[in-house]
Amino acid sequence: DTEVTQTPKHLVMGMTNKKSLKCEQHMGHRAMYWYKQKAKKPPELMFVYSYEKLSINESVPSRFSPECPNSSLLNLHLHALQPEDSALYLCASSQMGGETNEKLFFGSGTQLSVL
Amino acid sequence: AQSVSQHNHHVILSEAASLELGCNYSYGGTVNLFWYVQYPGQHLQLLLKYFSGDPLVKGIKGFEAEFIKSKFSFNLRKPSVQWSDTAEYFCAVRPSGYSTLTFGKGTMLLVSP
Q1: How far does Cα A105 stand from its chain's mean position?
Q2: Digit-coded pLDDT (tens) for A59-92
């Protein structure tokens, strides 16, 4: 299994809703990432978890709350989002995190629309 | 902090034309370099990567890239493009030993049949 699986594929939510994005991988990777990609723009790093500990938070607003319950799962909890948060949210994983000879495996993303 | 510059936002080619997409990065130390492709409606896929060794790397689907350290460049090439190569191409750089992968703004390639 060389896939990173993200659910749901599409999500529409209001500004007062609470929702969660889920990401799962079974490749034994110990680093997992959340990226945000607006239309026609490159992915922007949000968070990095390495060995289930948050190692990088790229100054992301607190309305985005990541969680890594175990080495295979990564969640992104959403609360009180703004319409400008509408984007494709990509999860990725890599073997160790920061080591050489690593590549990132990306999921298909969750297309989020905030109304 | 590192940065990545892709020279062209949009490229339009006819089938069988040759392709070269420019990528320059700024970082003083050792880097890992990547090209990712995003086909319409699909997720990012790795085309090729450079970590060390031969600066000319070959990837999937006939793509190759050359790392020129003196020019801080990692240009992507393909001798003859196909309609199915229509996609967005992202160059990315990661300082060796770090997790952060920085992407360029992307180049949208449109290949007309």
Answers
A1: 12
A2: 899 999 999 999 999 999 999 999 999 999 999 9
